[in-house]
Amino acid sequence: MKSKETQSRNSMRGIAGLISFSTIIPLNIHTSIEEMADFTWFWPIIGGLIGIFVGVVGYLSLNIVHLPPLITAAIVYSFAIWFTGFHHLDGLMDMGDGLMVHGDYNKKIDVMRDINIGTGGISLFFIIAIITFSAIAAIPANLILLTLIISEIAAKMSLLSCATFSRPFPNGTGKFFIESMNIPLLILSLILTSIIGFLAIDIVGILGIVGGLLGGYIVATVAKKHFKYATGDVLGASNEIGRAVSLIIMTAALINL
What is the pLDDT of residue 20? Predict the structure, then answer.
């Protein structure tokens, strides 16, 4: 059996590896996908870390530099996809290409895993990007920091939800994250993130987290219909789509409550 010291060291390495995998932060961690996947349930907390950076950019742009909301939205979204290394954006575009193909799931997955980007990928990126951009532009200035933090947590909750309700493709890195998730771990993450959401912006924060959860479930359902399996690209797409769904729900709630 592993000692507590070894387990603690492995845990820190796995979480640090997941941070390095999820961002451009140069942690220089030497770990394996399997070791990182053990902490998939922890991903929304890392999303909160990402959200702090994204939120600060939004706050500075809107409240300190006093740039217009549309320019702030462009800067914030550009920073978010850059800071996360364009990994999830790549998955979104690949999934878009796969969805456009006619044929069985094997053909769709082959196209999805192809390095070329087609009309389907560009179109899906445009749809999600313009929705995300517009939702960010609608966030009230006094709540932009907290709302963006919650949206990044929700993006990772979407990824967890997608992984929980998906069937893993036999090969590829995505299968390790999918196989590591289950309903109890999803519920644990949902409880933790809902508490954070409530403390941040009351019921609006909880709605944002639930929006991410819903986004991931939708992506998993679509992937099951078109691809039978979920891949790393599908998980990446769920991150981007979950963020968009969360932002739509939160901005709608902030305007109407």
Answer: 83
